[in-house]
């Protein structure tokens, strides 16, 4: 893979799906709220709500050199988190474009839409 700083800020759901299928080493970070996570989630994702990330960002330090793909419902909150993490030196962070809503439409229709 090319240098981490060259990773585009957005990544599409098809690429994330392939990464999961291939067992790639990355953190799939869900920044939605617990009530949203209870309705729909991507298997293997880690929940760290946007509302708590400021107080819990230290939990991500161990993943600083790993690829991190952030997602939310439609991609807005996760883009905020992606930009914030990149500004803190997390060079391999990407936003899953379209969020879990597009995931349920294009990858896994068993994931509920809301």
From TrEMBL:
- Per its UniProt record, what Pfam families does this chain match? Rhodanese (PF00581)
- Highest taxon of the lineage: Bacteria
- Domain Rhodanese as annotated: residue spans: 22-112
- Return the InterPro entries for the record: GlpE_sulfurtransferase (IPR050229), Rhodanese-like_dom (IPR001763), Rhodanese-like_dom_sf (IPR036873)
State what protein this is by name: Rhodanese-like domain-containing protein
- Source organism (scientific name): Novipirellula rosea
């Amino acid at each position: 893979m090319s240098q981490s700083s060259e990773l585009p800020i957005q990544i599409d759901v098809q690429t994330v799906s392939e990464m999961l299928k291939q067992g790639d080493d990355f953190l799939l970070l869900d920044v939605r709220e617990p009530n949203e996570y209870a309705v729909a989630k991507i298997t293997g994702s880690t929940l760290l709500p946007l509302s708590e990330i400021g107080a819990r960002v230290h939990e991500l330090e161990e993943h600083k050199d790993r690829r991190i793909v952030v997602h939310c419902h439609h991609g807005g909150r996760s883009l905020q988190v992606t930009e914030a993490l990149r500004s803190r030196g997390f060079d391999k962070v990407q936003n899953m474009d379209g969020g879990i809503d597009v995931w349920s439409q294009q990858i896994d229709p068993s994931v509920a839409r809301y």
